[in-house]
Amino acid sequence: MSSLVQEWTEKVAAWRSSGLSIAAWCRQNAEGYHRFLYWR
To answer: What is the model's pTM?
Structure first.
């Protein structure tokens, strides 16, 4: 698995376990909302 895919797999897992909305998680983690949706 490429490092970018691995990185996003971990970010999505972190979001799922956080209990936050995608928007809230992205704000807290300085991540782009639309970029997150693409990788989710």
So the answer is: 0.85
